[in-house]
Design brief:
alpha/beta, coenzyme a biosynthesis, Dephospho-CoA kinase, ATP-binding
């Protein structure tokens, strides 16, 4: 078991990069966002969120993640409260999935990884950060999530910067282009990790 964190801000292209690691090298991927989507279905979690934010976060009996995301992108205290509720449960589920992984190393896609939250993942061996220009991120968010540019900018600014991510990362992937530009970067990182595992780096 060799856990490798994959991180990057909203609009950086984490899903594409994670998919390529699996497709090119058969690496198991654990997605923290997917775990969060599973956790937020828990009746106890739903009840706590509604108690805190009211019925406006509900749609058809479920938490409306888009509404919730909008709230926490504009309110630091709301984001802190939600993180304190969700993250311990999410981390527990990630560790369970990690224990079942069978690939030579396992990538854990953790969007909100920061210097502070790194302490919650003491088992992480290497960190890969995906960086992209502000223009690229804005284009991706507005196209994918049907957000205005100002809404997308708020989401980006609510997270740490790429410069900060670089300070705690072992590898950087630049993702302003297409898959043809991603593949060689991913291959190089894969072989570097294998060399480390084999004691040749």
């Amino acid at each position: 078991m060799f856990p490798v964190a994959l991180t990057g801000g909203i609009g950086s292209g984490k899903t594409t990069v994670a998919h390529l690691f699996h497709e090119l090298h058969n690496i198991d991927i654990i997605c923290a966002d997917q775990v969060a989507r599973e956790v937020i279905l828990s009746p106890k979690v739903i009840e706590a969120i509604v108690d805190e934010f009211g019925d406006t976060v509900m749609t058809n009996g479920m938490i409306d993640r888009k509404v919730l995301r909008s709230i926490i992108s504009q309110d630091t205290s709301a984001r802190t409260w939600l993180n304190n509720l969700m993250h311990p449960i999410i981390r527990q589920q990630i560790e369970l999935k990690l224990s079942k992984s069978q690939s030579i190393y396992t990538i854990i896609d953790i969007p909100l990884l920061t210097t502070a939250t790194l302490t919650n993942y003491p088992y992480i061996k290497k960190i890969i950060s995906i960086c992209a220009s502000m223009e690229t991120k804005l284009d991706r968010i507005t196209a994918r999530d049907n957000q205005t540019t100002s809404q997308a900018l708020l989401m980006i600014q609510s997270q740490i910067s790429d410069d900060e991510r670089r300070t705690f990362s072992d590898f950087i992937i630049k993702n302003d282009g297409d898959i043809s530009e991603l593949t060689p970067q991913i291959n190089a990182i894969h072989h570097s990790i294998l060399s480390f595992l084999n004691g040749t780096s």
